[in-house]
Fold this sequence. Notes:
Largest sheet: 9 strands, mixed
Strand order of the largest sheet: 13-12-11-10-6-9-8-7-14
Radius of gyration: 21 Å
Organism: Pedobacter segetis
Protein name: Gfo/Idh/MocA family oxidoreductase
Number of helices: 12
CATH topology of the largest domain: Dihydrodipicolinate Reductase, domain 2
Order of helices and strands: EHEHHEHEHEHEHHHEEEEEEEHHHE
Shape: globular
Structural class: alpha/beta
Distance between the termini: 38 Å
CATH class of the largest domain: Alpha Beta
Number of strands: 14
Helix content: 25-40%
Number of domains: 2
CATH superfamily of the largest domain: Dihydrodipicolinate Reductase, domain 2
Amino acid sequence: MGQKLRLGMIGGGKGAFIGAIHRIAAQIDGEYELVCGAFSSNPDVSIQSGKDLGLDISRCYASFSELFEKEKQLPKNERMQVVSIVTPNHLHFEPAKLAMQNGFHVVLDKPMTFSLAEAKMLKQIAEETGQLLCLTHTYTGYPMVKEAKQQIAEGKLGEVRKVYVEYPQGWLSKREENGDNKQAAWRTDPSKSGIGGAIGDIGTHAFNLVEYVTGLKVTQINADINTVVEGRKLDDDVNVLLKFNNNASGVLFATQVAAGEENNIKIRVYGEKGGLEWQQNDANSLLMKSADQPFQILRTGSSYLRSFAKHNTRTPAGHPEGYLEAFANLYRNFALTIKAKLNQETPTPEMLDYTGIEDGVRGMAFIEQVIVSGQSDQKWTAFIV
């Protein structure tokens, strides 16, 4: 493990949902130490949140601009090295930009930015500064998702022909944004979320999962976008037909109005030799299907799994690892990559296995082009990044 990376945080203060998840994930493997933060746009809340987390009051900042200004002035062996940005979408680009320009690596909540234009600018800044960025597409962190990716890469299914991915939620089946639900309020507000509602919030997870697991790239889309709940300003239900760069086809749906559903993201991939299936509700299992053999259920922690699954598993078989551990795998792999870079070593493929800036740009392109496709009379739209 070695010396911990010094971590700062922007957002995630009192009353925030995802900030605590990030903090737990970052500290599971002992690779990070939280040393500073600007936890809220309200200066008083920000400083009090930092104090509640046990931070030195001198490093509880009133704004993210103050955080960068003062951290940069500290001796190199004291200042933060990585900043985790856990704010609403409209507050992703500016702090990520300032972080990289001031020499800090970035962990960023998805989707990467407010718009595709911002995503492309952030990519350019990363290339100019040499700073690294990890985008927290959590579901790629599960060991059996990684096993599925390696199985496909090794040709176990043969040529991929068909893909189905779904992400059903039900929490916005009513107008939750009219009450005290802060998560609903900003996620359904185009001034904070961007042009995509469900497609930006959970559709990007489904899109990222498909490209990660299959190793394929989407080349064409045909989208149907809906706003089911009356008066809502953004989409809450999306269906997308997909074409891939090997001529395979796919179906993606993301909805937040499936009353009674929680977060059971699910993917099925079929090739010429067989198929596989994974879902979050049984995250420790990977179902393998063969055209001429009985199906198999592969399990997390088993000795027969491949290197990426083993690298991202902490407990013996039969001890479930879940959402927090999947989140932690992204943080750990990112930390190991940074440490290898600091030591002038070459990171292993397992270390480099985290969602990066290229994926973030493609995610933003997906949001914008799904909206364009859904509003167009044209049947198919080329997916261009």
